[in-house]
Amino acid sequence: MAKSITVDSLDIYYGDFLAVEGVTMTIKARSVTAFIGPSGCGKSTFLRSLNRMHEVIPGARVEGKVMVDGQSLYDAAVDPVAVRRQIGMVFQRPNPFPTMSIYDNVLAGNRLNAKKMKRAEADDIVERSLKGANLWNEVKDRLNKPGMGLSGGQQQRLCIARAIAVEPQVLLMDEPCSALDPISTSAIEDLIHELKTEYTIVIVTHNMQQAARVSDETGFFNLKAAGQPGHLVEFNSTQKMFANPDNESTEAYISGRFG
Amino acid sequence: MSVTTAPVRPSAESVSFTAARLPRFAPALVGVVAAAAAGLPVLLLGWGVVAWAIVAGLVFLVALPLWARVVEGSRGATDRLVTGLVWAACIVAIVPLVSLLYTVVDRGLPRISSTFLTYSMYRTSLDQEVGIYHALIGTLLITLFAALISVPIGVMAAIYLIEYGKGKRLARWITFLVDVMTGIPSIVAGLFAFALFILLFGPSTRVGIGGSVALSLLMIPIVVRSTEEMLRLVPSELREAAYALGVPKWRTIVKVVLPTALGGIVTGVTLSIARVVGETAPLLLIAGLTTRTNFNVFDGRMTTLPVLIYTQNANPGIAETAGGIRPGIEIAWGGALVLIVIVMVLNLAARIIGKIFAPKTGH
Ligand SMILES: Nc1ncnc2c1ncn2[C@@H]1O[C@H](COP(=O)(O)OP(=O)(O)OP(=O)(O)O)[C@@H](O)[C@H]1O
Ligand SMILES: [Mg+2]
Which residues form the ABC transmembrane type-1 domain (chain B) (predicted)? Predict the structure, then answer.
């Protein structure tokens, strides 16, 4: 069962530094939502606040509300570990576990949580996840080799496989394709299309075409000025965003007239 | 670099990447000449080998850069001079070490035999053979127990400092105290253990475990420091990757952070053992002295190699032949060699273990 996410005037801080200010939006269940915006405007920061990964950084905190299916994520009674089991994440930079083989990396979510499973079941999860991330053919003969021995793009696909292996309700992807070639990118985009029938997907991308291709709705983040916190400028259906956005600066950004 | 300065610079087509260089054998040649040149005054003045080496080195350090300056220009000369200085520093650092090793092997090796390694000093008549077996066992057991005490405490303290205590007052205090502990003189650690065991078990207590406690006081700060460094090197991305999979913090530490840092931690622990295995003063106080082999660290005195070396050297006994080497001195040299071998084996083990546990890359 996929979940929708409602964000209400969310402020995100690193210590005293206000990185993102006043974000309000609703991310629909079983759809793909894309975030675009210039570098440093707080896309990653906002994405990380959706599964309580933000608070992992010392001093980092948020103010405001994030509701997932009616539950407030930042309630005192909420266990961040339980949140992250439901809301998975793929990071901007690939981070496979260096002590683990490719096989173990894919199973890390299960193994690290000491989930017992049969060998056949484990093999099945590994094959399905790697196929989903378009990596199976490249690594099927060396599943027991270290995950760090893969190329950067392969490592990123391994991380995607690892994230989908635990079948989260929501999948947050931070520029998952920035290190990938066009073929792998289109495989990931196909995967996103497939996953969308069951999961809620949020993706950050610098690639406008990608946002236009894969997403149903798009949010545009921007900085008011240098040194100011980032904020959500416009949030609309992707079609509208790319055809005639409400906001001038959105149009300027999408058409490439400013950075 | 602009085009207008072209007349003074060679045009793009004729740029040459070659420059005059000294022949490859130049340092060797200058070295031989310097050695010969230095030999003359040294012979005339009747100085020793050390003076000769120093004079030859200085001649070399002046001659080679001068030659390089003529042929290669000033950058070549500076390069030769600094290279020479770095080499000189390296040699100065290594010479005492090599000399020490040579002396110990030279004096100690003749004494090493199977009896020496398997007999204790305990004997019922004067013509019986003696050996260092009791001290060997004492060293190994006391150090083993010291490691059993220090490794869990040290590693867990480091985990607290890096994973939980960031910026907390308690963590700052622990760091400060660990720093202070690093500087504790070993005799003070020995006195502490001595006082502790006397308070607990009455006067004139001498037990091996007391030595282990004293050594662990010296080991813990080293283990904490090295483990801390290793944990700090584990990228936070890995921790985040585990958190994002819904893995609790303690499991992330146990299953991701520690395995990633394991090679370095094991190396650090091994080096800390190597550091304390040669401690004498604290063991002299609390572990006492005995000529018998004692396998029980919780009961009775235990001799260790450094203590044996110290006491044999202090009371070497009487030489069999007049003017011969006294037996205690021989035993001390043999014991020193065994101790150095133990430390070297530990160092080698640290390297090998570090290699084995290092995260694997490559295909
Ligand atoms: N760990 C951190 N500590 C302090 N400030 C941070 C930290 N991470 C990010 N920031 C700041 O927060 C702001 C938003 O950064 P963020 O990484 O979210 O940008 P982004 O939109 O993802 O950029 P990019 O497109 O380059 O990935 C930036 O000003 C950045 O300097
Ligand atoms: Mg980012």
Answer: 136-350
Is residue A205 within 8 Å of residue A36, measured between CB atoms?
yes
Interface contact flag, B240 A148, Cβ < 8 Å: no
Q: How many residues does chain A have?
A: 259
Q: Would you say A173 and B254 are in contact if contact means Cβ atoms under 8 Å apart?
A: no
**Gap between the Cα atoms of A114 and B265, Å rounded:** 24
Closest Cβ–Cβ partner in A85, A91, A96 for B246: A85
CB contact under 8 A, A88 and B248: no
Domains of chain B by residue range: 26-107, 118-316+324-356
pLDDT one digit per residue (tens) for chain A, 259 residues: 568 899 999 999 999 999 999 999 999 999 999 999 999 999 999 999 999 999 999 889 999 999 998 889 999 899 999 999 999 999 988 999 999 999 999 999 999 888 888 999 999 999 999 998 889 999 999 999 998 889 888 998 999 999 999 989 999 999 998 878 888 888 889 888 888 888 899 999 999 999 999 999 999 999 988 888 999 999 999 999 999 899 888 999 988 876 4
Domain that holds residue A60: 5-97+169-254
Distance CA B337, CA B107 (A): 9
Span B118-316+324-356 CATH architecture? Orthogonal Bundle (1.10)
Q: Is the CB of A43 inside a 6 Å radius of any atom of ligand 1? A: yes
> How far away is chain A from the Cα of B151, in angstroms, using its nearest Cα?
22
Integer CA distances (angstroms), A134 to A33, A200, B73, B198, B241, in order: 22, 20, 59, 69, 20
Instruction: State ipTM.
Output: 0.90
- B243 CA to chain A: closest CA distance, Å? 7
Global pTM? 0.83
Q: For residue A175, how far is its CA from the centre of ligand 2 (angstroms)?
A: 7
Q: Tell me whether residue A142 is in a domain.
A: no
Ligand 1 pocket, residue A14 CB under 6 Å: yes
Which CATH number belongs to the domain containing residue A205 in this structure? 3.40.50.300
